[in-house]
Amino acid sequence: MIAYPLPPARPVESRSPADPMPAPSPTTPQRTTLYDVHVALGARMVEFGGWEMPVQYGPILDEVRTVRNSAGLFDLSHMGRVLVQGRDAVRLVDLVATNHCARIPVGAIRYALFCSHDGNPIDDVLLYREPENVFIVVNAGNRAADVKWLREHAAGLDCHVLDQSDELAMLALQGQRSQQILQPLVQGCDLSTIKYYRFGFGEVCGMPRTRISRTGYTGEDGFEIYFPVQHAARVWNEILRAGRPSGLAPIGLGARDTLRLEAGMPLYGHEIDAQHNPIEAGLGFGISFAPEKGDWIGRAALERVQAAPRRRLIGITTAGPRAPRQGYELYAGAARVGYVVSGSVSPTVATNIGSAYVSIGYDRAGTALELDINGKRQPCVVQELPFYSRTRK
After folding, report:
1. Domain total of the chain
2. What b/e readout covers 47-71, taking b as 16+ CB neighbours within 10 angstroms?
3. d(CA 248, CA 69)
4. Tell me, what's the pLDDT at 27?
5. Is residue 4's pLDDT more than 70?
6. Which of 101, 150, 351, 362 lies 20 to 30 A from 27 at CA?
7. Residue pLDDT, tens place only, 257-298
8. Residue 192 located in a structural domain
9. Residue 228: CB partners within 8 Å, gap ≥ 6?
10. 301: pLDDT strictly greater than 50
């Protein structure tokens, strides 16, 4: 079998297998308004996406277990938050996003991507459909590019692109006890009525009309809340205080990276980027080729990929001593057939896990491959993603 020619191997990272990949920045990293709070809690701070963020407060794998077994609180204020408003707001989003914004019910959220004309992602995003506007959450490191992209394509349309990232804080409360922790702090909104990938508004910790979404990046039940940044420290502390009896703890980006990998969720710069398209990444659920959506940027390229994919994102497990890391190559005998894009020790499935691109033909679950780790081979097995699903326990 002829293997699909793969791009050159990426350099192997000298990081903990559970740490997220810090994005290099030519400037001084920014800090969220909760920086001093994180330092006071003993967090180890690292640069990520141009921001100085808490990678851990304690052992990363213990933080993973905390989220899986009770609940964790995350500062996500480094993420971008953009409001597209005006008569043509939905029209603009349908031009630049892969999902069909016009078909999203009001109050619902959909995963989508912004792609270049070649079909490769500029970013992956969440679209919040409001009656007249579209609220969009984007990745921290891509915020400036996303806002620029939206504004460029808004020319001639009756809409405005407002970057609200500096005005709004964003916290995530994740884990099976999230609702019982948050509900006593919320007035005017029954959290049980907010279903998965839906959002509503309520008074949270005394703040009126706070956006509350049942979303997250961990594979667990949970909520993300958005509110004026000047209240961030008070709200963070009130949620932590309310949740301590239920086992709530602050959680860093290291555990978040392992949690999202266990749940099979992509990270920009790993599973998707300017060289990895969303079709081969298994993100077809966030793409609409419906005729009524019309043309959109990247559609033609992704239709070609859909007709003839050459590689596929899969999971791998390895019982060997080394966890997979981005850049490790995968072999079937003498043939180089793939490469790792993310990896970690997984306390949830009790083995080393990774995500990897492999040539079609080597992507079937159960296929035995080998990791090349500095010239030494370690057996691994192909798995379907995700490794963990709370709905399939």
Report:
1. 1
2. bbbbbbbbbbbbebbebbebbbebb
3. 10
4. 74
5. no
6. 150
7. 999 999 999 999 999 999 999 999 999 999 999 999 999 999
8. no
9. 167, 168, 169, 207
10. yes
Q: Is 307 exposed, middle or buried (0-12, 13-18, 19+ CB in 10 A)?
A: exposed
The answer to whether residue 354 is domain-embedded is no
Residue type, 53: M
Q: List CB contacts of 244: < 8 A, sequence separation 6 or more.
A: none
Q: Does any domain span residue 151?
A: yes
The DSSP annotation for 345-389 comes to EETTTTEEEEEEEEETTS-STT-EEEEEETTEEEEEEEEPSPS--
Segment 320-344, tens digit of pLDDT: 999 999 999 999 999 999 999 999 9
- CA–CA distance, 128 with 108 (Å, rounded to integer): 6
CATH number of domain containing 86: 3.30.70.1400
Q: List all residues 6 or more positions away from 189 whose beta carbon is below 8 Å from its beta carbon.
A: 200, 201, 202, 203, 212
Please spell the DSSP secondary structure of 65-112, one letter per residue.
Answer: HHHHHS-EEEE-TTSEEEEEESTTHHHHHHHHBSS-GGGSPTTBEEEE
Type of residue at 68? R
Q: Tell me, what's the pLDDT at 1?
A: 29
Give 146-183 as a 3 state SS string. Answer: HHHHHHHHCCCCCCEEEECCCCEEEEEEECCCHHHHHH
Question: What are residue 162's phi and psi, to 5 degrees?
Answer: -110, 120
User: Looking at residue 6, what is its pLDDT?
Assistant: 36
Residue 314's nearest CA partner among 388, 364, 372 is 364
Q: With bands split at pLDDT 50, 70 and 90, how would you rate the model's confidence at 392? A: low
In the three-class reduction of DSSP (H, G, I as helix; E, B as strand; rest coil), residue 309 is classed as coil
CA 240 to chain centre: 23
Cis status of the peptide bond prior to 54, with omega within 30 of 0: no
Q: 95 lies in a domain? A: yes
Is 391 or 49 the better-scoring residue by pLDDT? 49
